[in-house]
Amino acid sequence: MLSEAFGDGVQLTLIDRDDAFVFGYSKLDVMFGRAALEDVRLPYADFAKPGVRVLRETVTAIDPDARRVTTDAGAHEADILVVALGADYDLAATPGLVEGGNEFYSVQGAERLREVLPTFTRGRAIVGVCGAPFKCPPAPSEAVLLLHDYLSERGVRGDCEISLVMPFDIPVPPSPDTSAALLAAFAERGIEFVPGRRVSSLDPARSVAVLDDGAELPYDLFLGVPKHRAPDVVLASGMAVDGYVPVESRTLETRFPGVYAVGDVATVGVPKAGVFSEGAARVVAASILAQLRGGERPGGYDGRGACYVEFGAGRVGRVDVDFLSGPKPTGTFQEPSDALVAEKRRFGSSRSARWFDRPT
Ligand SMILES: Cc1cc2nc3c(=O)[nH]c(=O)nc-3n(C[C@H](O)[C@H](O)[C@H](O)COP(=O)(O)OP(=O)(O)OC[C@H]3O[C@@H](n4cnc5c(N)ncnc54)[C@H](O)[C@@H]3O)c2cc1C
Questions:
Q1: Does 27 sit in the ligand 1 pocket, CB within 6 Å?
Q2: Contacts of 184 by beta carbon, 8 Å cutoff, 6+ apart
Q3: Whose CA is closest to 251, among 237, 264, 261?
Q4: Model's pTM, two decimal places?
Q5: What are the pLDDT digits (tens) for 211-228?
């Protein structure tokens, strides 16, 4: 938005240690062999916008008072700083996860699972959440439904059990209708739902997952959602409180003048999901635009977002959630349909076109 408005008139620096962007939901496609990694990677080399420098550097320190970012290649000072480093995974917080399980929340984890899944032909698979908050609350539900399809297509579903362990009482708490549809889909497919629990450790020697109430579930394949936390560099910067960066939810401003935080790294009162990161980024961009042009500040961030939910069998539903405008979060559900499959595809292709000049 800033590049579109000002072109070369402002100096914009985008720093990322990775060389490509990957949509969160593409990890499910990679892990189940529905897409190759090369096909879902959007290289920053293709991000060519007037006024924008893209630097592939690792941020090693942030000084929010001075608005200075130190990287492995030097220091960068800014008039306005937007911290958008996402959430990291704390695998060590779940003893046994590395030795005895798998995670599907990173690109590397999803890629590894692509090799592991074909070796699973019998026994119990657990999709287990190891801590909240976690990204994209519907994703573990999507994972069990897609796993059901994957095992069915390979003719081994009858020899396998699937369980989902989640720290919520229903799969998508702000939307009872979405949750009811997911629970019905689990029941139809014989998928066990273990609500209100998280996986606190794995005992690889005995192949059991230990839940936070001490109960034990045996497994032959464990697909974990690791505990999340803000990146170390953010924790060391003094910006975080209770693990993430607090912001004023309408403006995304931190308590440091000229410093914003957007996306999973921030505590905004919305779930950790890309649609919310994008919505927050739009508000910050509009506010910087107003500041530079001297116009009216935009209306505040509304905490609304839509999420496409994979229901298996090639079907996609949609949940629209509103986290900030009422006294409590609300959600509306659209039944899975072919139209929503096409809409999800358009959602992705419209972003790849705008950000990476890909054909729609
Ligand atoms: C399986 C799965 C499915 C998902 N499905 C959906 C979905 O359907 N819809 C949806 O809206 N969301 C979905 N999500 C969630 C979504 O991917 C994230 O919420 C979103 O990517 C958060 O955006 P962000 O910009 O805050 O952080 P990120 O996308 O994590 O970006 C943070 C960036 O910071 C960079 N970085 C971190 N530390 C450093 C450092 N020290 N130096 C330099 N760079 C650094 C990283 O390389 C990264 O590019 C899903 C996530 C998963 C795991």
A1: yes
A2: none
A3: 261
A4: 0.97
A5: 999 999 999 999 999 999
